[in-house]
Design a protein that fits this description.
Blueprint (H helix, E strand, L loop, with lengths): L2 H6 L6 H16 L3 H10 L2 H14 L14 H13 L6 H9 L3 H14 L22 E6 L7 E5 L6 E6 L4 H5 L7 E5 L2 E2 L5 H9 L4 E7 L12 E5 L25 E6 L5 E6 L8 E4 L1 H19 L16 E7 L9 E5 L5 H11 L4 E2 L4 E2 L14 E2 L2 H9 L3 E7 L2 E6 H9 L3 E4 L6 H4 L7 E6 L3 H10 L16 H18 L5 E4 L3 H17 L2 E4 L5
Parallel strand pairs: 12-18, 12-19, 13-18, 14-15, 19-20
Antiparallel strand pairs: 1-6, 2-3, 4-5, 4-6, 7-8, 7-11, 8-9, 9-10, 11-21, 14-17, 16-17
Helix pairs in contact: 2-3, 5-6
């Protein structure tokens, strides 16, 4: 095809290519260079013009003001709006309608599709082009980072096979990660001009600690340098962790301390023993190292074995399954549903006051807050009404229902069975009421299910002196002696505290909130606030509960 034909049909060709061809034609009249002929043939090829046309159209995406997206984070904004609306649903009908509309899967899918297009996630991710080099030639890269009070955000180790110092991990959000120049598996050759061959990771760490200003690394790139992608996993920690006292952590400065109950964003699980995480409340912070679930489980099992050997025997825990090892629980935000309230479960030691708190909450709004009527096999007493204080059944009937798993809790007292049926709890929830429960702590396992989705509150006693003082001043009657109306004894106070400690040890990681019941009025106010939050706010719950 000649340049004249091109010019005659230039409406079908890219203007930039047409201009280049015209320039080559002028140069051709002055020179008969074969390279110019080659370039002209290339520029006139249909294949190249098709590629240029596609490139031009893709490049225009987002440049048309009529179609350009205003933002690319509508999904994130939707979640933030949902959190704001959830706090106003009980006050405003428009807020409630908007809250339910934004939870529709079709609308959410539309917003996520919009964000994918706005962020140009539809572009193909092509692999890196292979670099041709001699077999004996090594590629070296020089990386300079400015040292500050912030850790570099990378750990090193000695490669087991080669004995060389390599980059073990890159901490998400750290200086090394932000630079985009250092990758896991890179071999460290020099640090600030000091050859590290034959040195240990501790030696290299000393070099870094003694360096000031700019730190220069000479590295051999690793074979694979895939970009680090952050995981979306959130977990609730079921134990306390302090990297400063952990003798096994690869780098104490890189560790992340946390407490039981903290919500952690697990950004990387690439390492079998050390995950990278940050607190959910610190979304822009550098990630830190925490023990993986597998590592923490091994530690707990080892500690249990050592404790049992020290005790001289193996003691079986009859309160909870021994195979349950509390480490991390994956969680997600559980949004409140209109007219379907989560049961609120008050757990505490006998005599701590959980039943009194439950009674006060029901008295505050008996149409909204209800407790299931318990079942019993004991005879009805004078003044009792069947179905009001208890549902009276035969022992054979109740034993059969217990065997069939129809009771969430049951026990025997003075030769008679007592219990709460699962169906009675469901009936209160289905009636649009808040079900309040104050069962024995051993009922936690039966209650904490995806069907009920309960909110667990641990009612705890204050320390001994305050416990005795507050109960004496309020003339509280002992719940340990039904036959005599008397106050609590010191022994009963101590038993209450010991029982609370045991509950916390066995089940503390399951509680969503805790209330120290020193002053009953203050404790009740806190309970009211908690219940209102459960009814109106999205709260963290096991991810299996969020459908």
């Amino acid at each position: 095809m000649t340049a004249e034909v091109m010019a005659a049909n230039d409406t079908h060709w890219d203007p930039a290519l047409s201009k280049l061809i015209a320039s080559l034609k002028e140069a051709e009249s002055l020179s008969n260079d074969q390279e110019i002929d080659f370039l002209q043939t290339l520029l006139e090829s249909k294949e190249l013009n098709a590629l240029v046309n596609v490139h031009s159209k893709v490049a225009k995406v987002g440049k048309d003001d009529r179609l350009a997206p205003i933002l690319s984070t509508s999904g994130m904004i939707m979640c933030e709006v949902l959190e704001q609306l959830s706090q106003q649903c009980h006050l405003n009908e428009d807020c409630r309608e908007a809250f339910h509309l934004l939870q529709k899967p079709h609308l959410q899918s539309l917003l996520y599709a919009h964000d994918a297009i706005a962020q140009k996630d539809f572009y193909p991710h092509l692999p890196d082009l292979p670099i041709e080099m001699d077999e004996d030639e090594e590629t070296i890269k020089i990386v300079q980072l400015v040292k500050s009070n912030e850790p570099l955000g990378a750990t090193i180790k000695t490669d087991e096979e080669s004995g060389k110092i390599i980059i073990a991990r890159i901490m998400h959000g750290g200086a090394a990660d932000r630079s985009g120049l250092i990758h896991v598996g890179d071999e460290v050759i020099e640090v600030n001009g000091i050859n590290v061959e034959g040195k240990t990771p501790g030696d290299v760490l000393s070099i870094l600690q003694n360096s000031e200003g700019t730190i220069t690394f000479k590295l051999v790139p690793s074979d694979g340098r895939g970009a680090q992608r952050e995981s979306k996993v959130r977990v609730r920690a079921h134990f306390d962790y302090n990297p400063e006292v952990d003798p096994y952590i690869p780098c104490k400065e890189a560790g992340l301390a946390f407490q039981r109950g903290d919500i952690l964003h697990i950004v990387s699980q690439d390492d079998s023993y050390w995950w990278q995480a940050r607190r959910e409340s610190e979304r822009t912070a550098r990630a830190g190292l925490i023990p993986s679930r597998a590592l923490q489980e091994r530690r707990i099992l080892h500690e249990r074995t050592q404790r049992e050997i020290g005790d001289g025997e193996s003691k079986k825990n009859d309160d909870f399954d021994r195979e349950l090892i509390a480490t991390y629980e994956e969680v997600a935000k559980l949004y409140p549903r209109p007219g379907i309230y989560r049961p609120v479960v008050l757990i505490g030691a006998p005599g701590v006051g959980r039943n009194e708190l439950r009674r006060r909450l029901i008295a505050r709004d008996p149409e909204k807050y209800r407790s299931p009527v318990p079942y019993t096999t004991r005879p009805m007493r004078t003044g009792e009404v069947a179905g009001r204080e208890y549902i009276f059944v035969s022992r054979e009937k109740m034993e059969a229902d217990i065997e069939a798993g129809k009771f969430i809790e049951h026990g025997e007292y003075k030769g008679h069975l007592y219990g709460t049926s699962a169906e009675s709890v469901k009936s209160i929830v289905n009636a649009g009421c808040v079900c309040l429960l104050s069962p024995h702590y051993q009922a936690i396992k039966a209650l904490r299910t995806v069907q009920l989705k309960p909110f667990l509150v641990h009612i705890k006693p204050p320390e001994f002196d305050e416990l005795k003082k507050t109960r004496t001043e309020s003339r509280a009657k002992s719940t340990f002696d039904e036959s005599n109306a008397r106050g609590f004894t010191d022994e009963e106070f101590n038993d209450m505290i010991k029982s609370s400690v045991r509950i916390d040890f066995l089940y503390g990681h399951f509680f969503d909130e805790e209330i120290i019941n020193a002053d009953l009025v203050t404790a009740f106010e806190k309970l009211v606030n908690i219940v209102q939050r459960v009814e109106t706010e999205p709260l963290w719950a096991p991810s299996s509960w969020v459908q």
